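Can't paste images in this forum, so I'm doing it all in text. The chain is below; anyone willing to post the predicted structure tokens underneath?
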Amino acid sequence: MQQLIECVPNFSEGNDLNIIKQITDEIETVDGVRLLNVDAGKATNRTVVTFVGEPKAVVQAAFKAIKKAGELIDMSKHKGEHPRMGATDVCPLIPVANITMEETVAYAHELAKMIGEDLLIPVYLYEHAQKDKLRNNLSIIRAGEYEGFFKKIKLAEWKPDFGPQEFDAKRGATVIGARDFLIAYNVNLNTTSIRRANAIAFDVREAGRTKKENGKNVLDENGKPVTIPGSLKSVKAIGWFIEEYGIAQISMNLTNIGVTPLHIAFDEVCKKADARGIRVTGSELVGLVPLQSMISAGKYFLEKQQRSTGVSEKELIRIAIKSMGLDELAPFKPEDRIIEYLLKDKMDSKLINSTLSDFADETASESAAPGGGSIAAYVGALGVSLATMVANLSSHKPGWDERWSAFSDWADKGQEYKNELLKLVDADTRAFNQIMRAMSLSKSTDEEKQVRKQAIQEATKFAIEVPFKVMQLAYKSMEVIKAMAETGNPNSVSDAGVGALCARSAVMGAFMNVRINAADYDDKNFVDDIVAKGKEIEDKTILTEAEILKIVNEKIGI
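Text version of the structure:
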């Protein structure tokens, strides 16, 4: 399993595109990393870069980018709206796949040591990479910013974790750490007042505001200021004015999107702004966002309207964009802003992304793939799609308003089955191609023959497992089809019937592929077991189809 970490360095340059390009070019010279996003801000004079890859490669790419930024950016001349202390202001590493936070911390320490010792830049650790809880918060480390660090760095308690205890006038200092996934998110206001924007920021941010009486801070028994917490956990926020847009914004870091998701942060700012006579006009994401955040937001806003959430992923994202006004200041292109879309290999979804006519033409061509397995998966996806359509139509049927939630749940299930079956359309073709590649391996020596045989067996097992998964999903999808035949909009009962026919065809067609591929697999115990299970699924499918068609035909009545 490939380990992946994300790196999101913030460079103190947002205007000179040539400088930004030189920095990102350094990242792209490293094999094993992929540059995902470059988000330059003129008013903040800051660029947020996002790249992902294998840990060692990410560390190397980050080192090269930080080195180049130090060569090109002169902090003594830097001006910008965003707090900053160095040419590379902050550089977090974030675990993405198959890697623990502890492992990510080790890589952060490795990078910080390289920056401090090889480049002689003062480096501070933060978040999970910093053991000292008194200095693991980025805002505390950065307090005083670039201008204040000439004195701050001389204090014993602010000795850098790596590098010299001398502030570099040109390059400043850098903060490196390991953190959970963070969303940088700005909410747009119909005001130019920084003071009012800050008031809203204090209302929502977890740290809240200092309690005051008669204009003075209220102190506790230890002489420390008493704070009034804000309404959102795991949220940092400030208010600022963006001259580029002519508006004030609430600038937020959502540090734990499991605690406070994107849509909750947006809605809460709307409430607090409205209470102060200010209107939210939209919002903007800085950098990238996980797919699930957009899907959850789309479902949240549909639920508020009491509408079915069982719509396509594309539609959920569209609802999220429009509901939060993510396209107010600039176009929001999901393919450029959602992490999973940027990492997706287009060849892995070649068939399902093709047009219907192209898919048919490719199937009808002289190539052996796509074949019956891919078609079975697609027919299964079409079958449950019909049932999902019935669920969505039923949720909006006049007079059935109180039943919208139940039908929405069925539509959600249908979408899940559809999405999994669509993935298997291309997976079946990949399985065939894997067998062909294995068979093309050299067999000149005994060792090569053994390697080739093992590769063929592994590919054959995959080619058995993919259509078997189609069988399982297509059969399970019949629960949605049957429910819609029984309880869905009666005007669409024939659609449920066609869905049942498709599901039956998908199961039987996939089973043929299981059996024909199993004939070439040497592990006969595995073959006997999977064929027996496949026969059981086929028999159950035929019985369920008959039950559904009986319901459908009785309701049609002619």
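The mean pLDDT is 93. The first strand starts at residue 4 and ends at 7.
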